[in-house]
Amino acid sequence: MARAGLTAERVTEAAADLADAAGFENITVSALARSFGVKDASLYSHVKNLKDLRERVALLAAGELADRIAAAVAGRAGQDALAAFANAYRQYALAHPGRYAATQITLDPSVLAASDAYARTIELTYGMLRAYRLAEPDLTDAGRLLRSTFHGYITLEANGGFSHSRDVQESWDRALEALHFLLQHWPAAPSRREAGHDGT
């Protein structure tokens, strides 16, 4: 690739591809420079340092994931939206393991403020959950439950952690049915139960 053709966007996309191929933890400026056939110094005109490069990959991946989820859930609600959301999330994570790993790193508030990628994913999550008539703090609690369930399942699946003969896809589908049932019957917060407002 020609040195003159380097841009911050091309460098970031190449780093994301490298993450998928070699692992997010193996992204280095030197490895990326070699893939372009240039010296390390050539990349520093486009990224500040390794931390900046990895943050750029995280934002790129978060935006791609949000786009996938938004397209999947468009026009859907309830169980249909939940399944579409979860399947888009899982498919992206399994197809792009390095990119997905990038979305799990902690970013500085200033970095998050400069992009709407993560905010869009949160908005999509809350929008899907509001169809279950949830409000805060239940929205946040339910969102954390979904994220931890999806992430845990996907991580185990990607690492070959499911050794039972039961089909992994069928277990995933059943898990989504169980999550839908739970969201439909979300327990009232303790304060509401104590006040006698648990709906019974």
From TrEMBL:
HTH tetR-type domain: residues covered: 5-65
Segments of the chain annotated as binding DNA: 28-47
Coiled-coil stretches: none
Protein keywords: DNA-binding, Transcription, Transcription regulation
InterPro entries: Homeodomain-like_sf, HTH_TetR, MT1864/Rv1816-like_C, Tet_transcr_reg_TetR-rel_C_sf
A Pfam short name: TetR_C_33
Origin superkingdom: Bacteria
Organism (species): Sphaerisporangium dianthi
Protein name according to UniProt: TetR/AcrR family transcriptional regulator
Gene3D superfamilies: Homeodomain-like, Tetracycline Repressor, domain 2
Highest classification ranks of the organism: Bacteria, Bacillati, Actinomycetota, Actinomycetes, Streptosporangiales
